[in-house]
Amino acid sequence: VKVKIPFGNKYLDAIFSVPEKKPTYGVILTHGAGGDMNFPHLVSLAAYLASHGVLCLRFTCKGLNVAYRTKAFKAVVEYLKLCDDYKLSGVFLAGRSMGSRAAASVIRQLRQGDDDDDGFIQGLVCLSYPLHRPKLQSKLRDEDLLLITCPVLFVSGSADEMCEKQLLEGVVSKMKVPKKIHWIDKANHGMAVKGRTADDVMEEVNAQVFSWLRENVQLQHK
């Protein structure tokens, strides 16, 4: 279902992937610095979640400024919260690369501002979190991560040039919330692995994300 989500004086393009049965939980998903909501990994994850009973709302926000992307993400969260078509008990924020930075920033701001003390946001999923620029490991983008107060899942490639394995493990060890890292062996920032098809890698990512969501909400299997 295609929708237009009001954002300032314009609209964000978004698509709902809707499960057959009435969903209780949803995931809001966005793309990295390049691409849009039709990035193959996002389409694949959205379809997988919907087929397993989780509503997925993915949206496009062009803009390379994290603050701008964060504002857009917030607008989408508000939209879904007030959306009469889908009454959800809670939602997980998810993003790929820069989108996951925006998601982390939204959660930190909402939690700090007590806007979300109703617990609508259940957790955060970071796909290929860009912890640092390539070859610039001295400057970590970890400030939002360390202030997050809900469960977090990281899915990253062990050969990601923007997220060195030991550095992410170091940051995660300082986080005071339930957290998990799933390493995709030998995958780069784009989740490409020599000798494996993109679909094969996506299946691994999708299954990990869904099983983590299920652990965190004990999704009811009716």
What's the layout of helices and strands?
Elements: E1 2-7, E2 10-17, E3 25-30, H1 40-51, E4 55-59, H2 66-81, E5 90-96, H3 98-112, E6 121-127, E7 152-157, H4 165-174, E8 179-184, H5 198-217
Parallel strand pairs: 3-4, 3-5, 5-6, 6-7, 7-8
Antiparallel strand pairs: 1-2, 2-4
Helix pairs in contact: 1-5, 2-3
What characteristics describe this protein?
8-stranded mixed sheet, alpha/beta, NSL3/Tex30, AB_hydrolase_fold, TEX30 protein, globular, Rossmann fold, 222 residues, 8 strands, 33% helix
Question: Would you summarize the structure shown here?
Answer:
By secondary structure, this protein is of the alpha/beta class. Helices cover 33% and strands 23% of the residues.
Characterise this structure.
The chain has 222 residues and is of the alpha/beta class. It has one domain: Alpha/Beta hydrolase fold, catalytic domain (Rossmann fold), CATH 3.40.50. The protein is 33% helix and 23% strand. The protein has five helices and eight strands. Helix 1 crosses helix 5 and helix 2 packs across helix 3. It is globular. 39% of the residues are buried.
Mean pLDDT: 91
- The CATH topology corresponds to Rossmann fold
Termini, distance in Å?
A: 24 Å
Largest sheet: 8 strands, mixed
Helix and strand content put the structural class at alpha/beta
Q: What best-fitting shape do the alpha-carbon axes yield?
A: globular
CATH architecture: 3-Layer(aba) Sandwich
Helix segment count?
Answer: 5
How many strands? 8
